[in-house]
Amino acid sequence: MKKENKLHTTIMLIVIVVCFQLTGCASPKPVLYPNAHLKSVGQVQADQDIAECQKIAEQYTSSSNTGKNIAKNTAIGAGAGAAGGAVAGAISGSAGSGSAAGAAAGATIGLIRSLIRGNEPNYTFQNFVDSCLRDRGYESSGWD
Length: 144
Hints:
single chain; two-stranded antiparallel sheet; mainly alpha; rod-shaped
């Protein structure tokens, strides 16, 4: 039984580390339409302008999910997992351990979901950056 718990803990830690690595590297940014302005300034200057517009937008808006939202979603996942685990555990005769396993699984799912979504800029932030870029002569075709 102890070996099984260590295995579950190890698997959960690996999943969390992988999620941090996946979500930490790639943040969406605007995709620019190749209009005359982009062609005249080049991609290097456009990337600098995108970075500047994002920095300005961060001063006036919230760019993505906050730590508060991540904690909330993790707690909701844990609660839902505990409830589901308790039901499954009651059917098999061990509601307590089923509840604990369900809570751990639910918390992990809630955390992973929040981390993945945490990298997605919110709508207001995107619009702010798009407006800034439009003022500089660019045309945003969307975010990728």
